[in-house]
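Appendix C reproduces, verbatim, an entry submitted by the partner laboratory led by Prof. M.T., so that reviewers can inspect both the input and the predicted structure.
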Amino acid sequence: QARLVESGGGLVQAGGSLRLSCAASGLTFSIYRMGWFRQAPGKEREFVAAISRSGGKSYYADSVKGRFTISRDNAKNTLYLQMNSLKSEDTAVYYCAADYIYSDDTTAKEYDYDYWGQGTQVTVSS
């Protein structure tokens, strides 16, 4: 049974950094493209970043481009999101997601993803 578990969230001051991790189990991690999404209170879940199976391709939402970096370690079955220069508007629950795909590509579409983690809270104080 596939399982994704996020960790690394917490409370940080504006301008600070956090690194989120997503540990995958029960699936062949290296054949899944991965993504990060977030949901702020009272808002719909939105795309943050995506990475291809190999890690060779990545894609970011405009709101985080230049500040966040998505990466993966297929040997450790783990996805990461390095978040720098955090802003109060980055406050949200962050979710990782996995999608099986044959090609080495990315997707920002929520409905493409098959598996989701339970989320980790990130709170940025101003």
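The chain has a mean pLDDT of 97. Additional entries are available on request from the coordinating office.
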